[in-house]
Design goal:
It is built from four helices and four strands; from the N terminus they run αααβββαβ. The protein is mainly α. Among the domains are: 73 residues; 46 residues, no CATH class. The strands form two sheets. It has a two-stranded antiparallel ribbon. It has a two-stranded parallel sheet with strand order 2-4.
Amino acid sequence: MREFLNKFKLRKAILPIICLLSLLLNVTHAPTISSIQAERDEAIQSYEVLQEKSTSLENKVGDLESKVDSLNEEKETSDIEMKNLKNKIVELEQYEETYSELEVKYSELESKYSGLEVKASDIETQLAAKTSELESALAEIETLSASASVSAGTSISSAASGGTGSNGSSETSSSATVYIPKTGSKYHSTSTCSNMKNPSQTSEASAISMGYEKCSKCW
């Protein structure tokens, strides 16, 4: 557009020269001054119109350049946002993979926990069985110990009765079977006295020698 305007200005500048040459070459058909002025005025008017159009076009070009700059800025902003979104997508995909791995590990740990629960239950069952066996063995040991004590007392009583006949009644009483509880300081003539549970049998002499005293309820 500027090149066009420059050409137009050049044409305006040489227009008087062309008119002068036309007068010299065509004397008979020479234009009048009024026609030359009219033509000049028309050219000036056309120039002004073109100048207004040029100014309008320059303004439009400026507006378009501003819009282009604004669009470029928006594009840059959009590119940054797209890059950030892409990074977030990658990060979320990594989180998703990590979550899947954690789910697998959780499932494995849950299976291991279930197995440990089964093992713990088996161990508890075995422990209960062993405890019951141990209690039975202890009860048997206590019974054997009581029987041994009774046998020892009987032997002592028999040996004593061979020496003196006048003490026979008291020694027979000392060899009588009595019952001693697992806890307490009294010996009893019956196994049900004082609601005893699994009392041990022994001789009265053995009970006395162990520090037990006669129960006043059952004697």
